[in-house]
Amino acid sequence: MNVSDSLEHSYQLQLFENGSGWSAKVFDVDTLAGQIHCLNQGDALFLGDLHVLRAATRPIQGLARLRGWLGLPTRGRIENYRNRGLGSALLNLVINRARAHGFRRVIGRLAPIDLKEDPKLPDWYRRRGFQIAVASNRLTGDLELVLSGPD
Ligand SMILES: CC(C)(COP(=O)(O)OP(=O)(O)OC[C@H]1O[C@@H](n2cnc3c(N)ncnc32)[C@H](O)[C@@H]1OP(=O)(O)O)[C@@H](O)C(=O)NCCC(=O)NCCS
């Protein structure tokens, strides 16, 4: 199974399902670029974690590999996978799977660490149709998308 970002770059998806939900890891060939964890919660699918890596380490290749063989210090190239549409593609995957499995809502929690890193995160979800209730201390928030039923 594959997903594509807004630049039509294709990523390989590895899906893991169990009775309580599912997870997915997204690879750019040999590099982990993102992941999702979802839990079944009654009529809702809980989006426990959606993460696109901004500093993924690509495996050492080419001349850098030769440097490694020679015992010289070397490290893989750092790749930022954000702002390419990959997060949106993964969120669409979550929504489509929730619909396909008969859930009526997608819900989730904005964690303090995520809101601190990106105070505009609620807007990212709002632009994608979610209702966001940010706590009065602005440290956490709840997100919800009500899915329309079949026509
Ligand atoms: C939130 C998160 C998943 C978004 O991932 P992402 O891959 O950067 O998301 P996208 O690329 O789809 O969207 C980011 C912006 O890039 C823009 N973008 C997408 N493709 C683009 C392109 N080719 N060129 C320029 N900009 C582009 C999008 O339009 C979007 O801006 P918008 O919201 O104004 O429309 C990511 O920032 C993340 O992992 N954050 C840390 C963990 C976290 O907070 N997770 C949420 C927990 S609930």
Short synopsis of the structure:
The chain has helices spanning 62-69, 86-100, 112-117, 121-126, and strands spanning 2-4, 10-18, 21-28, 31-41, 44-52, 56-57, 78-79, 105-110, 131-134, 141-146. The chain is an alpha+beta fold and 151 residues long.
User: What overall form do the CA principal axes indicate?
Assistant: globular
Summarize the helix and strand pattern as letters: EEEEEEHEHEHHEE
How much of the residues is beta strand, in percent? Answer: 35-45%
- Helix count, DSSP H or I runs of 4 or more residues: 4
Q: State Rg.
A: 18 Å
Ligands, deduplicated: coenzyme A
The CATH topology? Aminopeptidase
The total of beta strands comes to 10
- Report, as a whole number of angstroms, the end-to-end distance: 28 Å
Q: What is the averaged pLDDT score?
A: 92
CATH superfamily: Gcn5-related N-acetyltransferase (GNAT)
Structural category is alpha+beta
